[in-house]
Task: structure prediction
Amino acid sequence: MLYDDHHATSVLTWWDGLPGDPHLYASEIVMRTRYRAQVDGRHVIGAAGVGEIRVAVGDTVVAEARSLQPRDVVEALSQPPELRVPVEMRAGRDVDVRVEFRPEARFVTMRLGIAPQSDDAFGEALADVLSGDAEPGGRLPISIPRTEADAPVYRAQPDNGTLAYSEGLLVGYRGYDRKGTDPLFAFGHGLGYTDWQFDSLSAPAEAVRAGDDVDVTVTLRNVGARDGREVVQVYLEAPGDDPRRPVRTLAGFARVSAEPGETVEAAVRLRARAFACFDESARTWVTPPGTYTVRAGRSSRDLSVQAKVVLR
Result:
């Protein structure tokens, strides 16, 4: 075993520098979980990824398949081919589920899902979204590059057994912002069936004491022709311009709903920790005083309103 780690999510993505080099020949990633069914009956286990996949329940292999890498890297990351298998389960009984995965590329996305089988629920939910009866509400938790070379951490290969994390804090959207590179889809990106106009961002006019939370209010309007929901994202820019630190960081967000033409307000509390940075020499968290820029919008690259906050 070259690498072992615990994850609280069943959706894992490595873009480059995979732990233990599992993309090398005959190497594999193994995801294990214990599932307790809430109802008796048939459940569907779904495992997704580009490469060879084997699904086992207990000591029994229940399905295996090999998928080819899609031509589009975005599709490979966001919608990898899925292997589904129905398994009978008893309510209240723990079941050990194992997915063995041999990736076909230097990047890896693998997913595992378990749910009671329903012949109609998934199709009905998909139909509701496609027909516009339901509003899609997902937002990207990662940035998708236009090309592989645009990724902030393009190569992460050990040198004589040592891997230098020279990128520091500049990973994900932080790296794209610092390099000035436009991703194909930005962190926080997501679409709905209406349009929004961000009108203003209000913040305290008086100086705020370092260590206190800061409340801001974003005003926006549904300028489309139907009801909708939006995720208002608030980002924070520290005073100064240290090239080793991110240009801005996500500090808070809120979800709002509005009818056509309606104006709504999103109240977002920026926690004191969002203003702090770690001082390596002092080995503690510090909050630099000064003027901070607060920006709000629909994603890390769509920030149309701003305000200033002064920390004393």
Notes: The mean pLDDT is 84. The helical segments are 73-78, 121-131, 173-179.
